TrEMBL record:
Keywords: Signal
Domain Chitin-binding type-4: 18-201
Source organism phylogeny: Eukaryota, Metazoa, Ecdysozoa, Arthropoda, Hexapoda
Signal sequence annotation: 1-17
Name of the protein: (African queen) hypothetical protein
Region (Disordered), start-end ranges: 241-278
Family annotation (Pfam families): LPMO_10
Amino acid sequence: MLNILFIFSLMVVSVVGHGRVLQPPSRASMWRSGFPTPHNYDDDGLNCGGFYRQYAINKGKCGICGDAYDMKPPKSHELGGKYGQGIIVSNFEPEQIFTVTVEITAYHRGYWYFKICPNPKSNRQSCFDKYPVELATGGINFYPPKGGVYNVKYRLPKGLVCDHCVLQWRYVAGNNWGFCGNGTSGLGCGNQETFGACSDISISENSIDTDARPVKFATASNDISEDLNRILNLLRKVTAKPKYKKTKPKPNQKKKRNHRKPRHDTRPSKRKKEWMFI
């Protein structure tokens, strides 16, 4: 029995890998893009609670956003949790080709994929499994050759429209040694460490991309009034009449005075003098 446990421990030795979704920013990484959300400094380490917890306790299951499966709801990164605040980070058009930015901070082989659930309140993996996101070049899984930042193009699922969708990221590492299922064993076979993340997006016609600025769904009357005030202020600026600068009329220029004295005529008159004789 001890020999079996020893061999098994050799096969499941796990070296921690790390990764995060920067665009569209995940719930754990939104603060890095300027969103007013709590800071999660371990946003690249959402590994389903760890290898042992995922496989020995939860039988391989993981929370939809990378939290431990046995964590009490609402889980930290699910809607209603500490980081799941329902803030839409990107708007897309149906079937749009868009770019995802993923950072692998510690490379341990493996691959990642994306899926979408159109119901933000659902915490069931089956909802995501219905809408896998394909690479623009075809296929589902992306195999990064090394660590670093990757900008990868994807195409949204055909016919999917939603005011609030959840984009799920799964990174399955490949650095563990395990059984391959064909009677052999090798690196990358068997149970592997898994990472996860969730981003809140919307897919609608004539959408405006908001990657560069935070957009929050109003959750209280104060939020609604603040949004209305911003809109009214913008309308006032657009419709306001232009103000013309008032200028004082220029004073009339006075005619230049002639300071020369009039010249007396000293020339002799041409008229003949008339002499009067008495």
